[in-house]
Amino acid sequence: MMKEMDEGGADNLVLTLELPVEVKMSSPFFTAGAGLRSPSADRCLLTDGAGLPYISGATLKGRARATLERILRNWQLAVCEPPRPEMVCPHHPHLAGEEEPYCLCCRVFGSPSRPGRVFFADLALDTYRQEVERWMVPQPGVAVDRYTGTAVAEKLYVTEVLRPPFEVHPAFKGSLVGTLNRQEWGLLILSLLLIDYLGGGKARGWGRVEVSCREPSVVNPRGERVKVEDLLEEVRKLAPV
Ligand SMILES: [Zn+2]
Fold first, then answer.
1. I need a surface site. Which of 21, 128, 151, 230 has the fewest CB within 10 A?
2. Mean pLDDT across the stretch 50-55?
């Protein structure tokens, strides 16, 4: 059973916001870079021009989108299901007849046939360089045979991970800028807040994170004040009671 997606009226006014996002690490962290920066590792961290690890906007966007898809499915709202073309917006049967036949996920994140309206900037570590360099360490691992579950002979490999001391929880910081209506902003924020891991090595306990959003600054319409809490409140109207 599908719900009405748009209530009409003031809820549909679009807001251009800059939303500060913080991703706090609570375990070692790894996202793969393209090159082999460190001679002692087979897989190296993704680093910026200065050689420091960062979270790419595309990584955060991908994880947020997957999270929102899960939320919408749980709430039994229409969400497109690639790769089946007949189940992807704007062809999704549950959205047939809508003026704009796109699911809430495509409205927030865009799709091949609808440009995204939010720019996800890369997130940089908010820590002194010397410290970060000390945390970038090689981590040995052994390939495990997927059928027998045992170690594969001569398959030792080394991954460069970001591993701060146990009690230290550094944060990657950045911001998103976009133009969405209030409910879409609420969905985007909810999907960010529910992200609990990012990057690779989930099975090894890597990439556990806590995501938070600070109050957005309103780019347009000027003069309006918007709070994260109020945007999240808009989402309650969609959630099943
Ligand atoms: Zn869609």
1. 128
2. 92
Ligand 1 mean position, distance from CA 108 (Å)? 9
Q: For residue 125, report the distance from its CA to the centre of ligand 1, in Å.
A: 33
Gap from CA of 90 to ligand 1 centroid (Å): 7
Task: Please report the pLDDT score of residue 10 as a whole number.
Answer: 55
Residue 170 inside a domain? The answer is: yes
Task: Write 62-66 long-range contacts (CB < 8 A, 24+).
Answer: 63/195, 63/197, 63/198, 64/109, 64/188, 64/191, 64/192, 64/195, 65/105, 65/108, 65/109, 65/191
pLDDT given for residue 8 in this prediction: 45
Per the structure, the count of domains in the chain is 1
Q: Which domain holds residue 80?
A: 14-236
